[in-house]
Every structure is written in structure tokens, then in C-alpha cells.
Amino acid sequence: MGAQNSIVEYMNVEESQMIITSWTYLKRNLHTCGITLFLTFFGEFPENTKYFKDIVDQKDHVKTDQYLVNHCIKVMRAIGRGVDCIKSQEDFQKYIIEHASIHLEKKITKKTYEEFIGAFSNMLSQELGPRYSNDIGQAWEKFLRYLFYGSLEYTRKLLKDLPGSSMV
């Protein structure tokens, strides 16, 4: 996906504008949005807690402490950096590489990214309330897929050069 089209070609002007406009609202509530996102993600897909050992206790319960709050805000800010890059392929490509590099060792799967997108969609609907529409939800899903699939492509390229590495 990332290699085939640029983000500028992949997202039409209306979709990009929906993301930018809705992000303007979401970024006012990074704490709430992030907590909602991760509690939804872990609640619907508890198997993904394996990627977050610092957030999950020994019994795989999500710790709702300051570390989780800080991580949620960090993730929401990272998504915001992607929104800031949406109109520039060069900047967005750098953002994809940054995302892939941060997540390289975790070897996150396409399935996990799809589950995260589903949790994000649920959070989006909840947090935007009457401002939410199916078109906004679809634009965000498209945006996140471009980011995550581009990140997976970049990670695969990096890992194929490492002896004994495999990408699930």
C-alpha cells in the first residue's frame, strides 16, 4: 500500500480534511481518548496485552496507573504527528519509518493492527459523539491502514536482512 501510492494519492482531499477536522477535536482530550482507546483495545482483544508488558500486571490485567495514562497520551500524540504529515508524502514516509523503528522488536502483526484500528474506530465514535459519521470512521481506518501497512512493509525490509529473523 505505502509503496504503491503516496498518502496524498491514497487519501482524497475530503478524507484528509475529515481527519484533520476530527483530530482538532480529539487532540483536546488526548488523555480521555487514549484511555478509551487502550481499554477498548485490551477489553476486546486481550491477547494483545503481550505487546505491552509494562502496562499489564503478572495476571494480564491492565494496570490503570500513571504509566498507562502516559503511554496513552504518547500514542495519541504520535497519531497526531501522522495527521500533521497527511499532506506531505515526504513527511509521512519519515513518520512511517519512525513508527516502524519504534515497533520493530515487537513484531506486531497485521491482525493486531486491524484490531487496533477497530478499537480506534470505537473510541472515535464514542469521543466524537454527534460529530461522528461513517465517512469520518472510514477515513480514519484508511489513514491508519496506510500508516500501519506501510510500517509493516518497512519492518519486513529491515528484518529480511537480519539472520534468523522472521515477520509473522
UniProtKB/TrEMBL annotation:
Report the InterPro entries cross-referenced here: Globin (IPR000971), Globin-like_sf (IPR009050), Globin/Proto (IPR012292), Mb-like_M (IPR044399)
In its UniProt entry, the species of origin is given as Nicrophorus vespilloides
The protein's name in its UniProt record: Globin-like
Q: Which domain of life is it from?
A: Eukaryota
Q: To which protein family does this belong?
A: Belongs to the globin family.
Q: Which PANTHER family match?
A: GLOBIN-LIKE PROTEIN
Q: Where is the Globin domain?
A: 10-156
Query: Pfam families, from UniProt?
Result: Globin (PF00042)
Q: Which UniProt keywords apply?
A: Heme, Iron, Metal-binding, Oxygen transport, Transport
Which SUPFAM superfamilies does the UniProt record give? Globin-like (SSF46458)
